[in-house]
């Protein structure tokens, strides 16, 4: 019987994988997983690791600002690329495979950058818990030969948070984040105006100290998800009135609270998810 790997064993495996790569570009969003990957890549590769953040309307400015600060704390070199998924009608149509088109656009930008700069690999933050989940982006990674060292090292989300805490990363207890396009029901077209509306609505919650939230966009209805312990705050005055007024300024007619609370990926509920078979463009 194979002995169970300890967290230190997994860390050693991760660093060994990264060292063997010799150089790498890290697809870095500033989230929990990619921040730990950037930290490990910097430890293993030093100046031969580069963190690159994709800038697009689906990334809130607050998340971009946090990514910059975390990269500075890590010490890794950090650059930006501007992605054009909003020019892709397949992405804008918002199918269940939307993430495939988003990740493809990212890797289409990162692979030539790696080749131009002499980096041997492009890596991203998929990890063990993502196995078997609805992850169209994983197919894009496979097609564009982008590797997932966290997954290869058998690191779970709990492992990643524990290591992040060990290295003093402020993301160790950061709530999971998905791009703003995940706030829309599949099949509802994505536009920059809608993304901006959701970003501003969520910024209202962030500014008032709510840490874990989603504002799901159902045309004229804003469906707000927060943790159960934060629900009383939403209905207390003056918070309730201020939220309703702000959301109506943004164009919502109705403001609702989802009594089921925050669920990552709640737009997948009741949706027939299909696997995707698409040739890379």
UniProtKB/TrEMBL annotation:
Pfam families: NAD_synthase. GO terms for molecular function: sulfurtransferase activity. Transmembrane segments: none annotated. The active site is at residue 179. One of its GO terms (biological process) is purine nucleotide metabolic process. SUPFAM superfamilies: Adenine nucleotide alpha hydrolases-like. It comes from the Bacteria. InterPro entries: LarE (IPR005232), NAD/GMP_synthase (IPR022310), Ni-pincer_cofactor_biosynth (IPR052188), Rossmann-like_a/b/a_fold (IPR014729). Residues 19-81 form the NAD/GMP synthase domain. NCBIfam families: ATP-dependent sacrificial sulfur transferase LarE (TIGR00268). This is Potassium-transporting ATPase subunit A.
């Amino acid at each position: 019987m194979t002995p169970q790997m300890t967290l230190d064993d997994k860390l050693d495996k991760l660093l060994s994988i990264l060292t063997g790569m010799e150089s790498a570009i890290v697809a870095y969003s500033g989230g929990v997983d990619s921040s730990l990957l950037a930290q490990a890549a910097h430890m293993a590769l030093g100046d031969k690791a580069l963190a690159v953040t994709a800038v697009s309307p689906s990334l809130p400015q607050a998340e971009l600002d946090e990514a910059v600060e975390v990269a500075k704390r890590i010490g890794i070199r950090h650059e930006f690329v501007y992605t054009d998924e909003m020019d892709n009608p397949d992405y804008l149509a918002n199918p269940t495979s939307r993430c495939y088109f988003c990740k493809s656009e990212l890797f289409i930008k990162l692979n030539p950058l790696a080749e131009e700069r002499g980096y041997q690999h492009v890596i991203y933050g998929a990890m063990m818990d993502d196995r078997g989940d609805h992850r169209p982006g994983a197919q894009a990674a496979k097609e564009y030969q982008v590797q997932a060292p966290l997954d290869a090292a058998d690191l779970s989300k709990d492992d990643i948070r524990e290591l992040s805490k060990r290295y003093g990363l402020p993301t160790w207890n950061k709530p999971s984040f998905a791009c703003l396009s995940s706030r829309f029901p599949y099949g509802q077209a994505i536009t920059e105006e809608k993304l901006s509306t959701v970003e501003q609505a969520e910024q209202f919650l962030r500014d008032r100290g709510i840490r874990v939230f989603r504002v799901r966009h159902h045309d004229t209805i804003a469906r707000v998800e927060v943790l159960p312990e934060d629900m009383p705050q939403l209905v207390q005055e003056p918070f309730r009135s201020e939220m309703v007024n702000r959301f109506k300024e943004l164009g919502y007619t109705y403001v609702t609270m989802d009594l089921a609370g925050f669920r990552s990926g709640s737009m997948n509920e009741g949706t027939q998810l299909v696997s995707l078979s698409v040739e890379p463009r």
